[in-house]
């Protein structure tokens, strides 16, 4: 029998709830709970369901007789209003602890859907217009009933019932149970459980095999003959430091991601299905598939089992509460940089309350945002709510990932002590210092000035994972051997960056007077780690720190062996399937590689730091927020194409490139759109293809193949370049959103091309292995 708590003697002041609009947005007004239900105001609540895997049962609670809605009826395991200023997840945790006496960490809670309940009861006196965040807690076995401590004012009893039986009782409207429409929105709860635990193993294995087959396995190697013995010792330390970037990135993706990874690895050998799960997880580095618009290919039912032994003292001979470490089916837009239940409005209100320097930190690359209430709940489960005016606070990366960054810094210092290259020595020591100080300025300058046969990029750089704002940087590492011959050939682009900026197709008022030539290094990649999931990078242009971009420009690294592998395994087969036969001869590696170089160069030109209409200084990234990444990728691509044409017109590049660069670009459009329209590169590429198609520069033929109209392509490329550059220069977020909304869509020609490529089974990307690094590590 469950324990019953004594009722509280003192009646607390009535809680206030945030009033929402009908579409679920906060109005900024809060009212007492009674008034909200009297007036029918929209508000928020949480539903928490406890599900036992082994018995396929849901836990129900019997509502106390004194409740003002549905008294004495069987209902959700635990539920409650989200009080004004409180967050969803912390409310779910607190309600479970208060009503049932069960204290669970945040990784036990899976947000499965949001349910809008609109009903009127108690003869019209209680109007319930409620947005409910529905959470599922998956335990392995039922929790013993005597382990619960019930809050008498809320709950009179608890029981387990099979989910199938419960669904039938709801369907027939049994008067003992609070009604839910199982044929409507709430049916999702039962559908999710049904799908997870009654799956066809063979069908799922085939599905994973199909997903895996989109990646062509390749082995990436390079000649080490140019490396000295000390370089090889340095390489060993750097590869080990790069592996630490992996550890941090797993954590940045989602808080239960590291335990999921360890669990999948441990069980990979137990069945063919588990082996496939592990193989596909290794490519995506999370349970969400990069090539399927971040759709989950795993569920919480596949996740790690964790034991809460501290709960076992409640019941004799019970080893404790075992639960699945949860993750949501939809990839969280804020990854693990922000609280999972934080919305944009909450962040903006909090940010506006900060001083200027703190605002800079809040939106900076190298901080995470946390909740006071979560810290309090973790350290004092039975404690009071936070008394802070705002629940959010800033934590620098150097503190958040301290143990891992200390380990990486130690390895980089050892590497720095081993190398004979002065510039590499400076980079490694300064990067190690940056890991612990959280100030990356000096180490980024050292990276730009690197002049070493062993080429190392390591640290927090790209912001694609932060789909909420595009503020936060993920950790990554690229280690390669410099290709001196190819590097010498590329000096042309860096030398002409200023000339390109002066001639950009946009109003001269927006052009930058200070453009620094981007040094370009070509490497043969021998190892990568961290944020290198899914489709592999061909090149990168860093740093992203606007202070350095303004002071010194950027530097570029080209991964030549990755480019060659993609051209051979992907671009040539795509061209054969989708490009008009008479133009296929124009698809060549030189054009593909040259445009990739130009793409990266063009990240360094165009608007970065801008002046807004009111005279305020800002940056494109801060103004365009979540639209920045996709638009910046589209800019680099289309302006890159414009730049190649311009350099040809100045006799700086050969006229022979002209047709081949446009046709190779067309084939490349189909390659990138296959990454999915959730990903910045795919979204940016769809925008370009659809614009050029609309302007008649690309033509779809009756045989479903596409060709370039050489008489129209130049004007179409210039008009789109002008459109994007002007939006960036003005910091016009509304225009950016409208442009992407109109053109970043799967139009008919793109659908036809993707279908063709699926039928002929051209790989979407490559999955590299690194024999040199593996040899070093073993």
From TrEMBL:
Keyword hit for Hydrolase: yes
GO CC annotations on file: cytoplasm
CDD domains on file: NUDIX_Hydrolase
InterPro entries the UniProt entry points to: NUDIX_hydrolase-like_dom_sf, NUDIX_hydrolase_dom, Peptidase_M49
One MF term in the entry's GO annotations: dipeptidyl-peptidase activity
PROSITE patterns: NUDIX
Pfam family, one: NUDIX
Key words, A-Z: Hydrolase
Name of this protein: Nudix hydrolase 3
Organism of provenance: Arachis duranensis (Wild peanut)
Gene: LOC107482482
